Amino acid sequence: MHRYLLNISYIGTAFRGIQKTVNKLQQPHLDTNTVQGSLELALRVFHPTNEIITVLSNAGVHALHSTVHVDLQRPNGEPYDTTTLTGVLNRTLGKQRLPIRVLSSQLVADTFHCRYHATGRTYLYRFAVAKEPPSGNDNLRNKGFETFMPVEEIDRCYFLQAPRFDIDRVKAAAQMFIGVHDFRTFMSVSRQKGPSRDHPMFTVRKIDEVNIQPGKTLALAANATLAAETYDYWDVKIKAKSFVYKQVRRIVGALIAFGSGRIDDRCLYQMLTIPSKNSWDHRVLLAPACGLYLCRVHYRGEDN
Fold it and tell me: Helix crossing, 247-260 with 265-273: angle to 10°?
């Protein structure tokens, strides 16, 4: 038996979810509406003698780089060639028209765990702010329906109308989140349950970096020119060892609300320093999932 680390990327909006669903009342089957289930289906082409069970390092809407480990027992006992493993998996996923790609594969120690051995994760959140409020029907203007949006960016970026959006205020406020904090206010209720979630220290996390930089449109040809004329794109990168449920989307939502003038410094400070679900200001909107990407999973010994 050999253990392999798969470095993968995917666009998650094509799937119902990332992790497969297991129904103990039914016969086991592959949940191919999920990233995990689709990978396990692709791995079947190697005909290992053991049951294929993948372990994910993270869940997220999109991933530029995520990791999975899996144990495979070849009939002759020899390890699979990792270059062949990568190529065959990509060919199989491509034939199924699944938006998952294996970036690379490598043999790792039997004790390696892609989630527990990770030293950090970097998330990217993409949003775009309209440069000028559109004219016309007030009801449409408030919702932004008449503003150009490149079709290539659907479910890839959060587009918003925010007159007088102040990115400099956002950049300054983002530094408040760096360091060790209790992020209870910034945790959404999760369907996952466990005794550790009730521990008073469960929501304490350390944010290593928060960087906000100008972004770029993913649009093509004439759409790219029009998108750049219509919107200011921004990339928010947040790095930490681990995050609580929906923490990144809540942080980004709070920063956007602050930059839009919906909340002030005092409100942001209270949400961060008085950790409680009751401290969440309901003028802050949870940033939509479409703009969130797992950018990198970090491991010791890498050049990150």
Answer: 160
